[in-house]
Write a structure and sequence with these properties.
Blueprint lengths: L2 E11 L2 E10 L2 E3 L6 E4 L4 E5 L1 E6 L20 H9 L2 H6 L4 H13 L3 E6 L3 H4 L9 E2 L4 E5 L11 H11 L3 E5 L5 H4 L1 H7 L7 E5 L5 H10 L2 E4 L1 H8 L5 H6 L3 E4 L11 H16 L5 H7 L2 H6 L17 E5 L5 H6 L6 E6 L2 E6 L14 E6 L2 E6 L2 H12 L19
Parallel strand pairs: 1-4, 1-5, 6-7, 7-8, 9-10, 10-11, 11-12, 12-13
Antiparallel strand pairs: 1-2, 2-3, 5-14, 14-15, 15-16, 16-18, 17-18
């Protein structure tokens, strides 16, 4: 499939905004491409790399959230896990299959412009399901649940998982310092003890880091997945993010699951910016937020040569947004699900307004469906409306899931 976007503004990277044409051929980006279908954006749209969510639990996206009692917060993740499993939300969620939950999560990502995500579960649980999702859930990672004695024993031992990550040039992903007991506070020390602190590490949460921990992580070249909404909901505190940024740490953004965090990555961007203002009395630049959900995340996944920017030869993961704000980075920082006009995965349109149907042969093809989002008819890969209806039937009520921006019983556009 060959096509060329013209008359749009492209946020190529945080340092490069381009006006002109962007070509797609063979699933990759080609700026010199002249052949193929022409897609005229009429100066009203902004083209971005597909967004990247560095931390989600794809089996855990359901609503409403489960958290501490009013006026209280958790010391570590473990009492939250106990509360979750005793909750009405969990009982209701348990009526759905693992495949249901993963597919809901795939659409949670898609409808927020996410083309690449990490599911922080072990391969034995997700390896068969991930390739069936409508977006890219990476399979090239090693992990441990947490660097402590009470982790959930996912994968092999930390040192083994880390060695495999180094051998394969994959990320080694683990929750770290998700809490404030003695063990959580020794997360960095534990990684050092096991010889597992280096630039392959993608460390999630890190709310208990000392200043010394921050310097060690910066020196090691490790990356951080910051999940501010989940952190504040569970612990009423988040990572020392300004110090992380000043130390030069590669910071990406993650949602965690909707059981504790934002219901999608666009909302997490909004939350992160607002929280930064409250914490520090200054703005978190929109360019920095853009980097957190594009190139920084690609670097954390060891995929920066394939995704994360709009550059020649990279995969054509593309999000087209309405141009509501002149500055492309501010436009992303204020965007909602209703602003997405088109999403492609390796050049394949997976979601978009009907005006882009020429890219699919002029009509909605087999394997796609039509839904209404923000008053607009949209094509989408798969049939999320049927999934939504099935979920409602299984749980026995007209369930509302905020990360699905449509009503499944609505009539499609005639």
């Amino acid at each position: 499939m060959n096509f060329v976007f013209k008359n749009g503004i492209a946020a190529v990277s945080s340092r490069n905004i381009a006006a002109g044409s962007i070509g797609v051929s063979g699933g990759k980006l080609h700026f010199s491409l002249s052949g193929g279908r022409k897609v005229d954006l009429q100066g009203a749209s902004v083209v971005y790399p597909g967004l990247i969510n560095t931390h989600d639990h794809l089996q855990g996206n359901y609503l409403p959230p489960v958290g501490p009692k009013q006026g209280a917060f958790y010391l570590t993740w473990l009492p939250w896990d106990n509360d979750l499993k005793a909750s009405a939300t969990f009982a209701e969620r348990s009526k759905l299959s693992r495949e249901d939950l993963y597919n809901l999560s795939g659409y949670k990502c898609l409808f927020s412009g996410v083309t690449t995500v990490n599911d922080h579960f072990p391969h034995v649980l997700n390896n068969v399901i991930l390739p069936t999702l409508p977006i890219r859930a990476i399979r090239e990672y090693c992990l441990s649940h947490e660097a402590s004695s009470y982790d959930l024993k996912w994968g092999d031992r930390i040192e083994i998982e880390h060695q495999w990550a180094v051998k394969n040039r994959w990320p080694f992903i683990t929750h770290l310092s998700e809490g404030f007991d003695d063990e959580a506070m020794r997360g960095v020390e534990n990684l050092e003890k096991w010889g597992a602190l280096d630039d392959h590490c993608l460390l999630v949460h890190c709310i208990g880091f000392s200043d010394g921990d921050i310097q060690k992580v910066a020196k090691a070249g490790a990356s951080i997945s910051w999940c501010p909404a989940s952190n504040m909901f569970m612990f009423n505190v988040t990572a020392k993010i300004r110090k992380f940024l000043k130390a030069g740490i590669n910071v990406a953004l993650g949602t965690d699951s909707s059981a504790t965090g934002s219901f999608n990555l666009l909302e997490e961007i909004h939350y992160a910016r607002g929280l930064y203002r409250r914490l520090y009395g200054e703005d978190l630049p929109a360019r920095t937020l853009f980097e957190m959900v594009t190139l920084n995340a690609a670097r954390a996944f060891k995929m920066e040569n394939r995704i994360g920017t709009l550059e020649e030869g990279k995969l054509a993961d593309i999000m087209v947004l309405k141009g509501r704000v002149d500055d492309p980075f501010e436009n992303l920082a204020s965007a909602s699900m209703e602003d997405i006009e088109l999403l492609t995965l390796a050049g394949k349109p997976i979601y978009g307004e009907l005006r882009f149907l020429d890219l699919l042969g002029g009509k909605i093809p087999r394997g796609y469906s039509e839904i209404m989002v923000g008053g607009r008819p949209m094509f989408v890969l798969g049939d999320p409306a049927a999934l939504y209806r099935s979920v409602r039937k299984k749980v026995g009520l007209k369930k509302a899931l905020d990360f699905l921006p449509f009503e499944p019983e609505a009539e499609p556009h005639a």
